[in-house]
């Protein structure tokens, strides 16, 4: 297939691109470049790309593709809370517009990167794709709205699929340090102590970036009739873990580090365990391979190998801090639009 991958220069996109290519797909990227320079280690080999803000995508950018994989988003809960209008503008309105233009351009398959955080506070019971959606943040709310609106576009010629990813972890050449396992391994390495500010009891479903890429590959290969208008939770029940267990995995990967559960922020209302049986049933060739412990070890190995420092950890690889740096430098404006062409790719 000829595939347009939005957000190909982000954390997940930089992992997914070579996986799609290895599966034989012709991949073209689409990205504004906000996080193109957030590289740890050797820069990844980029594919041909369309350098455009998601809000400015036109019909001409979508002609000639068999499928669109839509990853691009402002994907950080603190950022979404700080700038909810921008989050909804990019994550919701621009995403629905992208789907509409894709349909008009003759794209037949639209794979949308949603999130398991749409379930919000679901308690200890395993939630399936049919569970009530209770988003607790602007980021999660934007994902729910896209699912609802894109579903109305579906017909015999346009097949959307919604992949609700668990919280991602694992090394990517374009690193994110503000997702839970990546963050805690970095803190353990840089300080020697993994500090958990909540009481450590909330549940989180985790999934490795490479397993997310494998899920999207499996969805591309599936017959349209089997996946049309479906939502799939992406992950494995084995990686439904508490925050305290995630902290223990991080400390276990970093020699001589310890865990301190302070409880100073009180219980976190976001707590949910997820049932992933639907995606296993749908795709015989999809089996998540990465455990949380394996991911923690991989992260520590790469942090050491490529010289992660506290400054890089807290600025370049933390989404909110990085965007604030770009704004302070006048590279992007208050709406996160670039003030000069190609500025984000330096």
Automatic annotation (TrEMBL):
It holds the Pfam family Epimerase. CDD domains: SDR_e. Transmembrane segments: none annotated. Residues 3-235 form the NAD-dependent epimerase/dehydratase domain. It comes from the Bacteria. InterPro entries: Epimerase_deHydtase, Lipid_A_modif_metabolic_enz, NAD(P)-bd_dom_sf. This is UDP-glucose 4-epimerase. The lineage of its organism: Bacteria, Bacillati, Actinomycetota, Actinomycetes, Mycobacteriales.
């Amino acid at each position: 297939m000829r595939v347009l991958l939005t957000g190909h220069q982000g954390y997940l996109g930089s992992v997914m691109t070579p996986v799609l290519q290895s599966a034989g797909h012709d991949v073209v990227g689409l990205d504004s470049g906000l996080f193109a320079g957030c590289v740890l280690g050797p820069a990844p080999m980029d594919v041909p790309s369309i350098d455009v803000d998601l809000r400015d995508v036109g019909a001409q950018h979508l002609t000639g593709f068999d499928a669109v994989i839509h990853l691009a988003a402002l994907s950080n809960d603190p950022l979404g809370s700080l700038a909810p209008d921008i989050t909804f503008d990019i994550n919701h309105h621009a995403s629905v517009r992208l789907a509409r233009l894709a349909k008009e351009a003759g794209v037949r398959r639209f794979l949308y990167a949603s999130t398991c955080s749409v379930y919000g506070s679901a308690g200890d019971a395993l939630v399936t794709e049919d569970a009530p959606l209770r988003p607790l943040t602007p980021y999660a709310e934007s994902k729910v709205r896209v699912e609802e609106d894109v579903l109305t576009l579906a017909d015999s010629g346009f097949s959307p699929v919604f992949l609700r990813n668990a919280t991602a972890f694992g090394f990517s050449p374009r690193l994110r340090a503000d997702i839970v396992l990546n963050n805690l391994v970095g803190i353990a390495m840089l300080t020697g102590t993994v500090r958990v500010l909540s009481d450590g009891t909330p549940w989180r479903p985790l999934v490795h970036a490479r397993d997310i890429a494998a899920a999207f590959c499996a969805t591309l290969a599936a017959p349209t009739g089997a996946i049309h208008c479906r939502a799939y939770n992406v992950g494995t029940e084995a990686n439904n873990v508490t925050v305290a267990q995630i902290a223990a995995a991080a400390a276990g990967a970093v020699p001589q580090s310890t865990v301190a559960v302070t409880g100073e922020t009180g219980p976190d209302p976001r707590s949910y365990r997820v049932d992933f049986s639907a995606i296993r049933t749908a795709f015989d060739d999809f089996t998540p391979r990465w455990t949380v412990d394996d991911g923690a070890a991989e992260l520590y190995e790469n942090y050491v190998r490529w010289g992660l420092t506290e400054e890089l950890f807290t600025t370049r690889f933390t989404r909110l801090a990085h965007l604030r740096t770009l704004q302070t430098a006048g590279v992007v404006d208050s709406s996160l639009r670039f003030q000069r062409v190609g500025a984000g790719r330096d």
